[in-house]
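new request in #modeling-help
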Amino acid sequence: MRCVGAALDRRWRRDYRACMSLVNLADYEARARELAEGSTLDYYDGGSNDEITLRDNMAAFGRINVYPRMFRGVGTRDKNTTVVGSSATWPVIIAPVALLGMLSADGEVPAVRAATAAGSIFVLSTLSVTPIEEVIAVATGPVWFQLYVYKDRAASEALVKRVEEAGCSALELTADTPILGRRERDVRNGFGLPEGLWTPNLTAESGSLAPHAGSDSPFKAAIDALFYPDLTWDDVAWLTSITNLPVLIKGLLRADDAARAVDAGAAGVIVSNHGGR
Amino acid sequence: MRCVGAALDRRWRRDYRACMSLVNLADYEARARELAEGSTLDYYDGGSNDEITLRDNMAAFGRINVYPRMFRGVGTRDKNTTVVGSSATWPVIIAPVALLGMLSADGEVPAVRAATAAGSIFVLSTLSVTPIEEVIAVATGPVWFQLYVYKDRAASEALVKRVEEAGCSALELTADTPILGRRERDVRNGFGLPEGLWTPNLTAESGSLAPHAGSDSPFKAAIDALFYPDLTWDDVAWLTSITNLPVLIKGLLRADDAARAVDAGAAGVIVSNHGGR
Amino acid sequence: MRCVGAALDRRWRRDYRACMSLVNLADYEARARELAEGSTLDYYDGGSNDEITLRDNMAAFGRINVYPRMFRGVGTRDKNTTVVGSSATWPVIIAPVALLGMLSADGEVPAVRAATAAGSIFVLSTLSVTPIEEVIAVATGPVWFQLYVYKDRAASEALVKRVEEAGCSALELTADTPILGRRERDVRNGFGLPEGLWTPNLTAESGSLAPHAGSDSPFKAAIDALFYPDLTWDDVAWLTSITNLPVLIKGLLRADDAARAVDAGAAGVIVSNHGGR
Amino acid sequence: MRCVGAALDRRWRRDYRACMSLVNLADYEARARELAEGSTLDYYDGGSNDEITLRDNMAAFGRINVYPRMFRGVGTRDKNTTVVGSSATWPVIIAPVALLGMLSADGEVPAVRAATAAGSIFVLSTLSVTPIEEVIAVATGPVWFQLYVYKDRAASEALVKRVEEAGCSALELTADTPILGRRERDVRNGFGLPEGLWTPNLTAESGSLAPHAGSDSPFKAAIDALFYPDLTWDDVAWLTSITNLPVLIKGLLRADDAARAVDAGAAGVIVSNHGGR
């Protein structure tokens, strides 16, 4: 049923040797642009509106100068860390990415395997094509769950319970998407969920992400119809009250909001502008 | 008589389907550059002198970083607003643009129809090719009038009365054009008012915008001969005294000038550098 | 004898019509690059070392934002001005440029005629190919003289007297050239004074600007052999004491140096980095 | 035995005339890119990671504005200087560069000859292909020695004694390489010490810089296996205690570290980010 990514998988395998020369992230990005195509590539590669923030996200790293102290005795370096109770041996967390079924016939399975094997923490998107339980089953390290809150609050509460029971170690509540960013590439492509994919973490009624009428992309229209756009800090407090999992707030950009997150019971924040999307 | 824009109108219609893919302002700008030509395109597309300010006007938006607050309950968003008594359902006002007869055989009529249908406020240029009264007749929302003050003060006063009687809702007095900017593209093109166009809001003697001798463009020479270059804040106070319409001052760049505008009876200011022109 | 520029003069005349479309300084610069050639063009077009300052001199203007006050009654504008006793009807002074004989068979004569006819002040370079007296004879407005100080102090004093008697209205003492900038284009071209040109304002012994051995350009070697590199503010005071002409110091970049100039009797300063040369 | 650079030497000689037109450092850099090739060029030309610091090292010079004082009496200029007891007639010190045997069959000999003939101070790299003693034998001016500290501390102490006895005038201890930068060009090239080269300043066991397994370049793996990565300021104090030579600390970027260097007995610091490598 999830056959969309099969051709991609074959290409990855055939090009395995080429992958050996991937030395940095830019190499991986260039490689991904060769392998993915058209509207799929645009979905992952594009940003919202004029993509000014998308571009500046990268350029901003080049503006940071590091002035290290010398002779600090760095012969022994330890990359092990623990974040809200989850251990990692490689201190980079894999951000949630939707719909990996567009890139692999096995959906999120290869990604969670690779991430946890590398000692990272894998964050599963609400919009995965693989059910939470199957992801947890193949993980060899902690898995967190990225949460959008539905208009249907009972469905949201049920999802949180399912996430807990499946064995996820933390929740990431996305703060910066009361409505989805207007990704112009998706608008031009009329991007919607590809044939044959569905999102099993969503409730039955809405899991198909059926297109809606409007000037936005069908994908954006479906998302905006499904998720609750009116969240307040009271809703954050509600969420932290119904779960024993640590809740991280993803997508804050201001110090005052970080303080509000702590007041609402959050275990931490993730500074992000949603990748400029 | 106003036949200049007819070929353009045909092209717009023929290309209607292409217009469906206009996703952002840059798309519209690129499309306009395909449809308009030569000195007409240069008139709308160019800026004054080396066009440094023209270019920086766009780049400046990219330098603005927004740090939004999250979880503010934005499920219900209201774009309705009222500005100096005029209602808009789309909170973007259409800036006055001269001589739309160069782009359409129907002059300002298509623009005012589209703007007011979209819920915006349409600002009519003193230099329109369609008389004020015809513009008001087709508008389905508020129309404002952009005002230059003539050397002939009585003609100016008469124009203000005509604007009031026609049913405009506000006046925009342009502050930043004691003389017209030197638009080098216009100089190179010898730009003047095209054959067959006239500007019916101007008095009979000067309405033809007849070319004048000099090193500037014929258009600039005609404008500079017609409009009063010696305005002071006393003249602004005079204008606000002779009309019951709210007067907005367009083209201020300094806070101290904004305070002076209020002292002179203005209802508001419009920060602008005349589009870098 | 001064035949070097004759071919250029013919080209200027043949291309007179093309000159009618010169709308701004960039146009003139582009035109000059068409007419001058090779090492002559490089001499005028180039800067010192990596030309970083040369380029930044232009870019720096684009970083200046002007925030004009509006409604100031600018109908009457007056470009007339007086600078250290010299009147100008166009308030832009023509900076001294060496060796105009490379660009015209008539040396500095066309330039001084054009500058004074336009109401500007013409500043004659020490390194002109036309004698001071001939320049003054054709000028229809004030002429200033740009001064380098010779190692031969008596020759310098004689030159100042000659300038006074010829009828120049002011002296510009160049501050920023104790040695000439290393202009790499000149080094690559082996640039020296062209055959048939000499500099009649210099003393007989040194007027030929004969090439010297070394890794610099022959021109730089000749200049550095001729001019006194060891000037101090005492020498400036000496200069102001031997002349009744106002002395302007050209090439200062610091406020503290401007105060020193006034202390040494200067009538003014000209902020400049020698055009990045 | 050290034959790697012989072809390059021939090319340098054949192209001697071309070298006469090398006017600035950029010319030399361009020339070197013509003469060196492949992984050798990449070793010298590349930087660490994305080469952002490498590029900014050059651009940073363009951001420095100099505001010179004028009329300071600069007719007599003296480039002679003494640094920690070493005299130079040209006040630019030649930074240590490893493995010059890749560029010349005579290893470091041509470079030390040229540098000391020019009146500069030559700094010999620990990783030279020419023994210290041979370098000193051909030098006509001061030679300093750049020091890495081995994991084998006795070998390090022996090396310091050897440097002293050979007649070096100062030690430069590199601070910023507890591990070698990850130079991605070297990773792509699988860069290691070329056949036929060895590094005679290193102890016999490690002098071959034998490749090691891993995802880095063989060169980096060999260096990281050899040098002590755990240096602290106590080790710096140890070094200054076992030698009478002045010790300069190379690769500091912070004022507080400079103060620590003085406390540890250093004679000076060299501000550097290892050339962005």
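bot summary: The radius of gyration of chain C is 19 Å.
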